[in-house]
Each structure stands twice: as structure tokens, then as C-alpha cells.
Amino acid sequence: MSINHKLTHYLQAFLYALVFLTRLPVGKWLHKPDSRTISTAVYFYPLVGLVLGLVLVLFASLVAGFGTWLAAALTVSFWVMLTGALHLDGLADCMDAYYAGHKITDQKQRRERILQVMHDPACGAVALVALVLVIMLKVIALASLWQQGAALSLLLVAPVLARTAILPFMALADYARQTDGGVSTPVNNSQSLWITAFLYCALVAVGLSFVHSAVLIVALAVLLTYWSRFWFKQIGGYTGDCLGALVELSEVLVLILLVALC
To answer: Where exactly are the transmembrane stretches of this chain (predicted)?
Structure first.
């Protein structure tokens, strides 16, 4: 493959990642993606997080004059709009699915029930509670950061690290459904996932102190390890909803830790 073809391939993979994970208007430049483009797009998820973070920093600077709490609420609302609530939907599906099947003792029946509910677009009470808690925690964490005088640029950290966590998570687990394309498409090269995640973490660490970056990375490692084992026990692997939920939980964890560390 020539250099031009490689660059075109990587650009298309990045655009696919942007189109899939955000509502940014870049779809007109995306060609019809093939399976190779979709698989390569996974490696650009953290870069999508950086794009989201930059847009959020710009937006937060525009609404900063509205007061800390209103600015935090508007920023989180804009955050949800940018992603089309994709990851929140994954979190909701995971919560509903787990509580629908967690009392079923037969492993096969529990797995089938959980996957069935995950596929159901309806949203139950447990899902609504989870969504309210996550959004509330994000607003409070952002407001707390800004009350402590933290720089707006810290908004970059959560979106990048949360989407970086997807890579080692996919390396640790197997996909639980039949491949259907998109965010859930398995990537066979687990070594490349680990290496790419390490590089993104190193880039984040450059902008933070050693203590800050070490705490955040270790905490995320614990979270993604637990999340991977949890869903392996429930369904024998992961789904796209599991990845979306991981992003939301990771963003909340990073924001809370930043409040504690600042």
C-alpha cells in the first residue's frame, strides 16, 4: 500500500471514529467504510476524545461568565449533545440489562436475558437513576474544579482518557455478540491496542504532574479491569453498550479524581 493510500485510510478511519462517536458535522467527507476502516477507527477513539475536549474547552470559556454552576450545567449539556448521548445510552442499557438478569441462576439463560434487554431500546427505572447520577456527578465535579480555580484545559483529560480506556478493555475481553460492525467490531491485535493506549496515556501525562497522571491511570486500570471481569461473568465478554458505559464511568472517575487532586 502506498503512502497516499495509507494516509487516506487513516484519515477515513479517523473520520469514521468522529462520525460514530460524535455529532460533529464531518460525515460529508467520509466514504462508505469497510471492515478494515472500522477496525482501524478504534485506534483513533482517544483522538476523538481530544477533539471533544477542545470543543468543550472552547464552549466552557464562552459560558464561563454565567457563573460556576450554570456554566458547569451548560457544559455537561453540550457534552451530551456532542456525543448524541451515545455513551449514556450504553450505560442505561447496561444497568437495565444487568438488573433484568442478575437473579437468573442459569448462566446461559442469564446471558440471553441480559443481551436481549441490552438490545431493547426501552429505558427502565434503574437506567434513569444511573443517568441522573452520572450527569449530576459531572456537573458537580466540573463546578468544584472551577471553584478551586482549575484551568479549563483540564476538560481535555476526561474525554481523552475515557476513550483511551476502551483500547485495553477490548484487548482484555472478547466480543459477546456476533460481529455487526461499528464500535463493537473486535480488533484481533491486542498488542497494538495496549501500545496505542500506552502512547495516549504518555501524551496525557506530559500535561499533568507525575502524581496526577499516575493516580488517574491506575484508577482507570482498576475500573476497566473490574468492568471487564464483571461482564465476562455475566455474558462472557462485552458489547458496544459495555464500552459506552465504560466511557461514562471513566469520565466521572477522572473528573472526581481531578477534584480530589487539585
So the answer is: 13-30, 42-72, 78-101, 122-146, 152-172, 193-223
